[in-house]
Each structure stands twice: as structure tokens, then as C-alpha cells.
Write the C-alpha cells for this entry.
Amino acid sequence: MLIKYCGPAHDYSGYGEAVRHDIGALVDAGIEVNTQIPKYCMEISEFGRLGALATSLIDSPGEYKIKILHTTPNVYQQYMEPGKYHIGRVFWETDRLPADFAKNVELMDEIWTGSQFNADAIRKAGVTKPIYIIPEAIDIIPPAVKGYKTRADDDFKFYSIFEWTDRKNPDSLLEAFWREFEHTDHVSLTIKTYLDNFTPEKKQEIFSSAQRTKRRLGLTRYAPVYFYTNLMDRSQIYRFHVTHDCFVSAHRGEGWGIPQMEAMLMGKPIISTNCGGIHEYLENGFDSLLVSYTMIPLAGNNRNQQWYTPDQEWAQVDINHLRTQLRQMIDLPDLAKTLGENARETVVKKFSLEAVGMQMAKRLHEIETI
């Protein structure tokens, strides 16, 4: 069985990472794949085995009936083909899919998404096509990855990986960390981040934003926060995970949550807003520490305003609860170890290429008989 998979497998974005892993999952499940790879990121990086696999499958010969589109839905019509059965691989971060996304998603024959939160957001936008919930996948690499040496080696090292946007909510993350550890030694936070790209101007925007948060808080002391603002390849990302002790995110909504899944794969405990995506598959206190939130209307967002609109809501993390979860990592050292071990088991069981590929293959074979 041959299918065509269209997605930005050469990009360093979350879309790119998800596309590479979906392709790997399909191939591992015995599905032949022909890839089509649009590109949206300027910089070039190295994406390991799965990046090479996606490249090797470009325009593979053969006839196919099914085409999977894994791009932002506003460009679906550029890649649709007459007579094909189209599957939209759709993820979104608020409680409602944007109107122009929904219009194009409705052109699909069916939708694959990763969580019930996303399925509800798609339906709320008026999409009527069948929806199937299939999680994202990850390559189960060996845990023996060597970490970096850092100036924070004597600290308990919290860390996060995200693009510096309102949706990722860096302001609340910094506030919770700085308030909770105002008078605590040997605790640090390292953030690997970027904003649109990796130019000096964009890096300065990040630093200026963090300084504004610091001035707003007006504390007597600030626990150290370190920034890494350069592009990393796949092996370097895993080394970054291994270097640190606990992943933390104050996000306002995740289509999935790839950094969370990567951290868990590497045996790291995670603290993350319990909203959508991977969080629906996790158990608070067993393989993660999930943070409560309230849904609030979008306000003050100045990015991608054509898609993030006032009729949508997203999550606002409970900062006090986030502080409590952060403190547990310091006060209960055995908890971090147990959470990390259970986190890796959860990822291996639920999100391996084999596990996700089997779900995809099952549905594709059902479609083939239609």
C-alpha cells in the first residue's frame, strides 16, 4: 500500500518534527510512503535518521489513492490532488479552529488529530467531516545520551524549550519560577528559545521581554535564568534534555507538546499546563506533574492575529499551582526520579513509532476498502 505524505519534514518547527515522526511510524508499520516536502523555515538543520528517511522518499514511484496533508490548513488547496482521498492531520492550540483553517479542513475526506481537546476545537469551528484521534509518535532512541557541562551543574536545573510567543506564556513561567525561588539557592532555569528565527534582532526581543517581566515583579532577588537562543540539531536537542533535571511549561495550549514528549523519552519529569495534546494521555503524580488552569478569551496577543481571534479561548495556568509543582521537585527528590522513570515508560508504550504506526495503518487499510 502506497500513500503520499505532504508536510514540512525539512523544518525545525513542531510541524516538521511531527511530520518526520509520522512518516517514520508509517514506514515502520509497513506502509509505503511517497513524500512531498514544502519548506517554511529559513535555517537548515540536521534531523537524524527520520529526516534522511523523509528525504529519501520524495516522489517515490507508484500509484496512490490516499494523501495526508500535514501543513497549516490555510494552504491545503495548494496540495490537494484530483481523485485522491485526503486526510488532514490537524492540530490546534485554542478551543476553536480558525475560520479559514476550518474552511479548508472541511475539504478533507477525514481528519486525524491527537486529542479530544483538538477534536472538540475542530467541531466547534463547524467542521463536519469524520475525525479520528491518533497521537503523535516519537522514535524510541536509547537513553544513553551525554549531557552538556554548564555553569549551573551544582543547581537543580529546571528547563524549557519553546518559541518565545504569547501562547507559550514565558511571562507566567518566569513569574512562577522567580517568585517561588526568590530565597532559594542552587536552583536555576534554562530556556532554549527563539522568535521567528535566530537573528540578533529577534534574540534581543527575547531578552528585552524577560527584562520587562523582571521589572514588573520587583523582587529582592532573582534565581538565575539562562537562555540558549541558537539553532540545535536533533542530537543536540536530546543532549539538552539530558543536561537538565526537570522540564517545565506554562503554555496556554498545545496541539501536541513535542518537547514534553522528548523530555519524557529521556527520563525527565515534566511539569506542564494540563490542557490538550499529550496531557490527555498522562497521569498527574505518576508520569508528570500537571498544572491546573482556567480558559480565558484571547487578549493582547500580537502574533498571527489572522488565526488567533477574539472568539477563541486558551488556557491561563494557575501560577500558584505551578509554583507548588516546582517546589515539589526541590523538596521531594525521590519524586523526580520516579516521575522520570514512569514518563519514559508511558512514551514507549503509547507513542512509539510502532504503537502509533499500527493505529495509522489500521485506519488506512479501512479506507482502502471503501
Observations:
- The mean pLDDT is 94.
- Residues 66 and 85 are 5 Å apart (CA to CA).
- The chain is about 40% helix and 20% strand.
